[in-house]
Each structure stands twice: as structure tokens, then as C-alpha cells.
Design goal:
- This protein is an alpha/beta fold and 290 residues long.
- It has one domain.
- The protein contains 10 helices and 4 strands, in the order H-E-H-H-E-E-E-H-H-H-H-H-H-H.
- Strands 1-2-4-3 form a 4-stranded mixed beta sheet.
- Helix 5 crosses helix 6, helix 6 packs antiparallel against helix 7 and helix 6 crosses helix 10.
- The longest helix is centred in the middle third of the chain and has 24 residues.
- The chain is globular and about 45 Å long.
- The protein starts with a helix and ends in a 7-residue tail after the last helix.
- This is Metallopeptidase DUF4344.
- InterPro entries: DUF4344 (IPR025644).
- Pfam families: DUF4344 (PF14247).
Length: 290
Amino acid sequence: MFSARCSVALAALVAALVAVVGCGGGQAESVGLPDPEPERTERVVVPNVPTETGEMFVVYEDAESPEAVRGRELLTEANLLEELADDVNAMLLLPVDVPVNGRQCDEANAYWSPSEQAMTICYEDAELSERIFEEAGEEDPLAATLGAERATFYHELGHAVIDLYDLPFTGREEDVADQLAAVLLLGAGDDGTADPENVEAAQAYALMFQGYSEQDGGGAEEFPFWDVHEYDLARMYNFQCWIYGSDPENNAFMVDDGFVPDERADSCEGEFDRMSRAWYEMLEPHLRDE
């Protein structure tokens, strides 16, 4: 069930790309996902290097601290990283094997390593997300946690493809990576709308940043504005704006309920459209042919 939701998001990216490429005067070759479902990635606790190159695969390392043990449990029981790796393999032509490491980091974090060409999702990140959603009184903290971690994965995928394909971009890389997460979660499917559970995942990601801000005291006085990341509340408002902008009619509640201020709302649709077009054009040469 989860894989289907992720595949809808990735299929939407490819479908929208076909429409963008087809806007030119010449004929554009159709780009899409392969028909057969990709082979499942086995869950492992030690490195299991695939026999073929250009595949994303998953490695779960051991966990010792209570936070890491709980985070590992959240990720493995949902098969979250395997599902996401399979969807990436179905969409992208990767130039090298790419490990996704579930790891105890002794901090809540996730990152892409250019030197190792590997993605790491820290167990503590999932555990902290669950605590944030529980403390916020979220109706289904587990679903919100998995949704936020899915968005986190897509954010790190943004860093990965920028590095692996040497993609050009303007602005801060962290902001551009957030934009890819939004595009993958909020892109319209065959019915012209995003999967409702993907929209909920995007909302969870935004709420996670609100939780981070509250943990830091909620003020900007101590925020390290020299950091490559945007201020947590700014990332929250950005994502909420993109949720609304991706489908203003169906997501009007984002403005009605005060998640997006009226002063920002007018620009959200244009923001989402522009960043979607940019990502479609950058990824087009690296998508698998149907």
C-alpha cells in the first residue's frame, strides 16, 4: 500500500515531465516508468551489495541507544526505506550503486555524503519525529512520522541527484532539496490531484519543522543564520505554501485554517509551478524510458 502511494508521486513527476517536454514544437519522446513492478529490495542488517550497478539499496545497521532502537523499529516495520529505494530505482538511471544507510548517529539527522555517494537516515530522526507528533496531539503519530520521514528521504534525494548528475541550480541547495520533496509529494496523478496521503505527509513535514522550532525555544534570537539550512519556521511556511500552491482549489483549507497567511498565498501557485518545471527539466535526461 505504501509503495503504491510513493509510485503515484514518482509517476506524477514523470507524467508532468512528458507534458512539459511536449510543449515544444518538435516531437518529444515519451518518458515514463517501466510497466513491471521492480524487484523488492531485501531488508538487511549488514551490507548486501547488489550484483548490478546503478541501483539504490538499503542497509540497516545495528542500534544500541533507546532512541535509535525505536527509530530503527519504526523504519524497518514499515519497510519504509525499501519502498522508497525501489521507487527511485524504477524512476532514475543511477550512475553508481547508492546505499541508503539506516544508522545510529547519536543525533536526529539525515544527510547525503558526496564522498561516499551514500544517503544516511539516522534512526534518531524517526524517533524524534514520533515524539514531536505525540506531544503535538497528532491523531495518528505513526502515520505522521512515516510521512515526515518519507519527505526527509526525498529531501536527501534532492542532494543526491544534484551531486550524482552535477545538476545546475540557483539559490541554496537546502532550499532546492526541499523543493524536490514538495514536487514528489504534491505532483498531480492521473486524476489531476495529488494523493491525499502524500498531502498529509507534506503537512507532517511542515509540522515537524514547527516542532523543531519549539524545541529551540520558538524564537529567532539563537538561530544560527549562517547555517546552510533555512530557519525552521520559514521551512514550515514554505512547505505549507507549496501544499496550497500545488492545488489551490482542493487545498484551500491551508489558507482558510491559517496555515498560509493571505500575504503569501497569492504567490504560492506560481512558486510551485516554477520549481516543478525546473526539477522536471533537470531530471529529464536521467529518467528511465518506459
